[in-house]
Amino acid sequence: MNKRKIILAAIDLILAVVLICQVAFRTKEKVKIFTIDEDITKLEISSTSEDIVLNRFNALWHVNEQKYIGDPATCEGLVDLLQSIRVIDQVAKTDSDADLAKYNLQQGKAVVVKAYNGDKLLRTIYVGKNTSSQYQNYLKIDDGKEVYLAQGNFIDEFDTTVDRVRSHTVWDIDSFDITSIKQTSADGSVLVLSYNDGTWAIGGAEINLDTIKAETWANTFSTITAIHWLADTTVITAQPMYNYEIACGNKLITLDVYSVFDEEAGYDLYFGRSSESPSPFELSSYFIGKLPRTPEELASAE
């Protein structure tokens, strides 16, 4: 390689390094992080579908005035998004609804999220649409006119519902605390299992009870998880397929199970009502398959 080519190659290399440094410097210049240093103890979320208020009491999040128990991971995930907002770029500066409509940030369209510590307002964000990548979102922060492009899928997280932010656990008890299970079927037949002096016994049936099967069935009732919550005012017109009474320590838990044919889906859906929740809820067909038992199914093979 002659001297002239070496010089040209060196110049090209220097220019490339300068260009990379300029791009990196400009990118770093655009990046801004909005942080909240105080604990967030309350969130107010207003969208076109639902208004949601999350309040933290000790380690638990409560949802709306009904104080439904919030799902810990979901609620803390929303807090984490607000605690540190990474802004990639400022794309506009405007308070015109016509301009803001390009980003779904106009009044009545944007999702409004307010973060509090007690009664102290820490931050307000206005959430618009996300980009085609789904990992960036248009935001406005506090009272500023700036429209930012932020890292994260804010719209999918904050344009949410009460059902999504609630814990779907209807109850969660220790199976060792269950001392009896009473199953009443729609035809009036009754099956009772009771635990006394370290062993299970069955009432109302002349069978040799398989204690392992009895224990397995009892374990089914230790944790009940809803697929979806229904509104508290929902009326289920069907008659219960089964009613359960579960004695646990000094507490009696009740569960009514319903089957409703969904014409659009073409199959049965299953719902429950329990003493442990003001809301009815949908149950999985898999779980329903483990619930009803006949004496024969609990009998020993011997």
Describe this structure as you would to a colleague.
The chain is α+β, with helices and mostly antiparallel strands and 302 residues long. It is 23% helix and 40% strand. The chain has helices spanning 3-30, 72-83, 97-100, 154-158, 162-165, 211-220, 285-290, and strands spanning 32-35, 42-46, 51-57, 60-63, 68-69, 84-93, 111-117, 120-130, 136-141, 146-151, 169-172, 178-185, 190-196, 199-203, 223-225, 228-229, 242-248, 251-262, 267-274, 281-283. A hairpin with a 5-residue loop joins strand 8 and strand 9 (136-141). The longest helix is centred in the N-terminal third of the chain and has 28 residues, at 3-30. The protein is elongated. It starts with a helix and ends in a 12-residue tail after the last helix. The model is unreliable at 15-28 (pLDDT under 50).
Number of strands: 20
* Oligomer state of the chains in this structure: single chain
Helix content: 10-25%
CA radius of gyration: 29 Å
Report the average pLDDT across residues. 90
Number of helices: 7
Share of residues in strands: 35-45%
Order of helices and strands: HEEEEEHEHEEEEHHEEEEHEEEEEEH
Main β-sheet, spatial strand arrangement:
1-6-10-9-8-7-2-3-4-5
Q: What structural class do the secondary elements suggest? A: alpha+beta
* Major sheet characteristics: 10 strands, antiparallel
Taking pLDDT < 50 over at least 5 consecutive residues as the criterion, the unreliable ranges are 15-28
* Overall geometric form: elongated
Span of the ends, CA to CA: 93 Å
